[in-house]
Amino acid sequence: xxxxxxxxxxxxxxxxxxxxxxxxxxxxxxxHGPWTLGCYGNPDIKTPHIDxxxxxxxxxxxxxxxxxxxxxxxxxxxxxxxxxQHGVHRYLGGNGxxxxxxxxxxxxxxxxIPSLLVDAGYVAGLxxxxxxxxxxxPQEGFSSWITKPHGHSRGFYDQEVIENGTTRIEPQYLTDLxxxxxxxxxxxxxxxxxxxxxxxxxxYGLGGAMRDEIRNRHRxxxxxxxxxxxxxxxxxxxxYNYGDWIGDLQIIRKYAAEVSGIDDGIGRVxxxxxxxxxxxxxxxxxxxxxxxxxxxxGYWGMGDHTRPLTAFDWTMxxxxxxxxxxxxxxxxxxxEIVSNYDLLPTLMSLVGLNDKLSDEVKYPGRDFSSMLTxxxxxxxxxxxxxxxxxxxxxxxxxxxIERIHQTPNELYHLTTDADEHDNLYGQxxxxxxxxxxxxxxxxxxxxxxxxxxxxxxxxxxxTDLITAQFFGISNPYxxxxxxPDQQPTPRSAP
Length: 494
Prior knowledge:
The radius of gyration is 21 Å and the shape is globular. Mean pLDDT is about 90; it is low at about 1-15 and about 475-494. A hairpin with a 2-residue loop joins strand 14 and strand 15 (about 390-395). It has 12 helices and 17 strands. The protein is α/β, with parallel strands linked by helices. The strands form 3 sheets. Strands 1, 2, 3, 4, 5, 6, 7, 8, 11, 12 and 13 form an 11-stranded mixed β-sheet that branches. The protein has a 4-stranded antiparallel β-sheet with strand order 14-15-16-17, covered by helices on one side. The protein has a two-stranded antiparallel sheet with strand order 9-10. It has 2 domains: about 20-380, Alkaline Phosphatase, subunit A, CATH 3.40.720.10; about 385-460, Arylsulfatase, C-terminal domain, CATH 3.30.1120.10.
């Protein structure tokens, strides 16, 4: 071992009392509901490798995203912060902050999972979708970097990718390309602690990508399947677009094939970890950025595909599976409500770096690592959500959705109305419940929101807004109001 490698290992051992720190593989899919996976009960879509991951680890049945769209949820997973804290309120549009002269990293001023791990001696690699700005060059300590110029997916073949600082048209199936680079990264760095962010841009479920023919290895598997796990429902009146996709077999089969294509890739990553004898010392986390309805409750798409914007469960509900042999229980299913903003404190605790989180940051998340070993955990089942002009609180039985500058507010009794069709807001019988939920919702955001990015109290946004007219904001960061030539607020020292 070289002197530099020995020093690196000494640094890492110093932050872990239980031996060498684990490698971390964070696998994130795009617009992906857990209802598509066999381990979550789907009988139609083939996902044997994700199911294997669940058998070897702990699966959360009620994990939720704090936002409806890609950039805010990714920013939240990586920073542990809400949009009113990190300022990324909507998906980043084309060009702008992603590529070109105004491009910048929207997370620059924050500690993130990759920056914290790199500061502690890990090597970090990104393979797949970034969608957080400054896409042309590695950000947040990543030294290996292949991504897309933009966040949306026009297709999965003959698409633009960024690698080694240049953009090219990549003819290969993108799902396989991201997997190829991921296993290459593991091969290259198998002798040192690493963080791999494998961020698939599928299954996606939206736009022109779904109208392309199935070209991956699952074409024949689904070409004549009816796939009844996709509900055939009447579109709800709130559907802004995509309602006519409900029951469309071409769309349904394409989405199923993309899910199985991702499953193939995850199988290759798990096999590579086994081949390099790294499985026992690698924490694997599988999740998605946000959910997607495939006909559920009368919707197709996410919470930005309704007017007004929504905070329904089908846009929140995400898969979440964690595996680390001998440290996380196998074949365990947990029914507690956990949030994507809980991932950062939980991950930092698992790798022995929770003391690196700044005491000056008001993290909204909670460490659920004790659940992974079946320790007794004091836990309140509550989740908070924020998407531009809507905020919501979800408990075991209730959901309250509040809007600013727009109506209606909503109250749902989830145990009797899982589809959230019967709005009880304003009914006298539920006035006490409503007041308590509203109090807790406002208390949460009063405690955590940063005035700079708190839209509800005059703050700004690093992104365009679908509801810009309600806030008197029009394209606030084009050109960027947080320019790359300005000195960012430095992250806390390691």
